[in-house]
Design brief:
single chain; 106 residues; mainly alpha; 75% helix
């Protein structure tokens, strides 16, 4: 193997080792910072329980309000149709023009 090629491979190996070593080092530093800055597990589970309880209360309140509205004879809200057609005449003409430019379909 020529000495130039061997030297190039050694430089490449050293460079790759430095890059991957730096990646592993930063990964370790980030995991340490995350562990140091994280809230205690007990407090987090307590807050999560409280959030779940509040979500359940909100869901029950929404369901009861919907049942009361239906019981009073009100129909559920349906959004109105748009005031214009979904495609304007200009859009239809331009799309037809594009299809005619392509030629017949096999």
């Amino acid at each position: 193997m020529p000495p130039n090629l061997q030297l190039a491979l050694q430089i490449t190996l050293i460079g790759m080792s430095l890059v991957f070593g730096a990646i592993v080092l930063f990964w370790g530093l980030m995991s340490l910072l995350v562990r140091a800055a994280a809230d205690p597990v007990e407090r987090r589970t307590h807050d999560e329980r409280d959030l779940r309880r509040r979500a359940a209360v909100a869901a029950v309140a929404a369901a009861l309000a919907e049942l009361q509205a239906r019981g009073a004879g009100e129909r559920p809200h349906v959004p109105p149709l748009p005031p214009t057609a979904l495609l304007s005449a200009w859009q239809v003409a331009m799309r037809a023009n594009q299809l005619n430019q392509r030629g017949p379909v096999r």
